[in-house]
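Researcher: I'm preparing a figure for a lab meeting and need a structural model of a single chain. I don't have an experimental structure, so a prediction will have to do for now. The sequence is pasted below. Please return the structure as tokens so I can convert it later.
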Amino acid sequence: MNKKHNKQKQRKGFPWTFIAIGGILLIVAAFFFANQSGDSGGTPSIAVDQQKIDYGDVKFGVNKTFAIKVTNTGDSTLRFKEEPYIEVLEGC
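Model: Understood. Here is the structure written out token by token.
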């Protein structure tokens, strides 16, 4: 009879394993929902206000600044997967 009493006592314990598994499933579900994009299936398109910037001759060590306006002319969210690439051409 003592063995029966011990088994019943063990079954009445708090189900930590089920809570842990449930918590992990909630975290995984939240991760997948957070990474879904809210795009409507359109296509993003990038446009800049200037294709070329000509400073003429610039002496070495002189800093020049400029601003480029970048806009999304498409109908979906524009996202960069890598750092934007800017090419500096010499002699243009």
